[in-house]
Amino acid sequence: MPAQQIRLDINLAVTTNPEVKHLMHTSRLDDYQKMISDYHLEIEKEKKERKIRFQELPYQDTSKLKALKKEVEGKFDTLVVLGIGGSALGNIALASALLHSYQQISNKKGLRLFVTDNVDPDWFTDLFDVIDLDKTLFNVISKSGGTAETMSQFLYVWEMLVGKYGDKAKDHMIATTDEKSGYLLDIANELGLRKFVVPEGVGGRFSVLSDVGLLSSILIGIDIDELLAGAAAMEKRCQSDELMKNPAYMNALLHYLYDTQMGKVISVMMPYSSTLKYLADWYAQLWGESLGKRYNLKGQEVFVGQTPVKAVGPTDQHSQVQLYCEGPNDKVFTLVEVEKNHKDISFSNPFKGNAGTDYLDKRSMNELIRAELHGTSIALADFERPVVKVIFPEVNAFTVGQFIMLYELQTAMAGKLYQINPYDQPGVEAGKKATFALMGRPGFEDEKKRIETSYSFDYRFIL
Ligand code: PA5
User: Is residue 176 part of a domain?
Assistant: First the structure.
């Protein structure tokens, strides 16, 4: 096994002991091999017909991004991404995993990155106290080009830029959006903004390896070639239809069966790493938004999907693990381990004879955090709670690229198992539509009427 390969350890998620009630028997997995092989063929067909294109991203041409990096070097010290959901979470996850933990204060590798994925006016406007507009480049990202949060932020920033720089405002703004259509594309064309693309056939939450995540990555100093090489390595590794050779399919099947047959309706992802905690945020969107669906492919009402929950180890051992061990047995756990940290520290103990510190003498922080991960996995296993481990030999662009592709492929297979469309998001669209109606956007008058007649707010029930 190559040294830099991330690994999926399912030892604590399956059992060969028929007495164990809450863990999946290994033979049950074998029963699904044929189904997995059939779905694999369907996925391959969709890939060939280019209906689904996130798997192509590791092999893309990145020369335009590299040219941009050269061009902006020395001109800016900060990049601000205006975006939300799939247009934001991947950017945050990559920066957090691969840069200095306090990169927003000082980033020696490139620009500092801020991602403003909310329209809380206090939080949003505070940003302008810590950036120097002269040295800030903005990237407004929206695949649809019509998302209220993103477009409202864009309006505010654009006005500020025009007020300060006039005709030169566009030197501070990039637009990343659909190639062919959309309101943002129209504006970008009208203003002559520099454009990057959310590719056709790649949905928001599958777009981190497109310009959506790569533009910020390259400008803040992440090695995008390594990131894509990691994703390519995982894409190739997952071309087998054999469950025991394909970690994406195995993990999809495990989660699907635990959810639908064993009542584990919650999927907890718990990296034992503060820098990887935003990968769990990214995962939560991917898993939740892709699989949480009302209708199946036949149009029948099914209301499926496992609820993703994010936690961080060991921090949440002191918050959630009591519930995880002894509360309802309705969860499957993914503990993410980092075998080797970039910077490790060890402790020396001047308080000899003190049992509270003696065992820490000459031990390292990496040893401690990994012991805590293994300790939690054993505590969970003792209570018959299934635990999958995802093991990073170390955290770098190559391993993070693998992780991203692993979970995207897993989600594609999970969509097949649930027999739903993992690439749409009608629930999200419904919320967007209601917001437009409430904001009085023309074209949404019927929706406004519907809301007003369906929900009469009774002041007696406001306490
Ligand atoms: O995954 C998705 O499609 C969504 O989460 C979108 O990324 C999110 O709603 C933002 O949409 P847009 O990029 O169109 O502004």
Answer: yes
